[in-house]
Amino acid sequence: DTAVSQTPKYLVTQMGNDKSIKCEQNLGHDTMYWYKQDSKKFLKIMFSYNNKELIINETVPNRFSPKSPDKAHLNLHINSLELGDSAVYFCASSRLAGRTDTQYFGPGTRLTVL
Amino acid sequence: DAKTTQPPSMDCAEGRAANLPCNHSTISGNEYVYWYRQIHSQGPQYIIHGLKNNETNEMASLIITEDRKSSTLILPHATLRDTAVYYCIVRGNTGNQFYFGTGTSLTVIP
Fold it and tell me: Which bin fits A35, alpha (ψ -120 to 50), beta or left (φ > 0)?
């Protein structure tokens, strides 16, 4: 009964490929997020969706495209993977897109681009 | 968004209280202070948050100074499982994103 789950946990792929990471939350939350944690351990937000609508899009290359088929899912599709995309990607969710709402994180997906 | 400053690393003896400081001198009046931790290779885990008053839950206590320019996270009886990077975050006021800094790497020593 994992609250926020991600698949796969590890992803190794070649440069130039297209890959997707899936995220699901069973908390009934309205808002979901994608974060990227690089090799220096900086954790930075990429996207936020509230009720399937994009509300935050930080400076992220358009090779990254989030897709939210419903409130419980927010998938991340990455085209033409580059070496610099290697990182750990975390999905998170919160009840409301509000200032004080707690975010719950998934276990992460470690992406390695060769 | 208010920025936070934390010491890069701290040690604590097992069974003792771990006191992790955080400075957030530019915090706005309606911004909350959140604490998360990240154990190696896992996703960040929520610990506690507060606005003005001190807060306590089953994991920790949060002490916020009266001027709100700093706070301290207290783990009352640190265990080896508390070894992690602890992030002090002030909630962004232009949206709902969290800005994670570099955090404090806490090592609990047997």
Answer: beta
Please report residues of A whose CB lies closer than 8 A to that of B93: 99
Which chain B residues touch A99 with a CB distance below 8 Å?
30-32, 91-93, 96
Q: How many CA atoms lie within 13 A of A53 on its CB side?
A: 4
For each of chain B's 110 residues, which pLDDT tens digit applies?
558 999 999 999 999 999 999 999 988 888 889 999 999 878 999 999 998 889 999 999 999 999 999 999 999 999 999 999 999 998 754 555 677 788 999 999 99
Contact partners, residue A109, CB within 8 Å, separation at least 6: A6, A7, A8, A9, A10, A11, A21, A88, A89, A90
How many CA atoms within 13 Å lie on the side-chain side of B11? 3
On chain A, the residues whose CB falls within 8 A of the CB of B102 are 41-42
Q: Quick check: A60 contacting B, CB < 8 Å?
A: no
If contacts are CB pairs under 8 Å, which of residues 13-72 in chain B contact chain A?
Answer: 30-32, 34, 38, 41-46, 49, 51
Q: Find where tokens 């916020």 sit.
A: B64
**Contact assignment for A42 to B46 by CB distance below 8 Å:** no
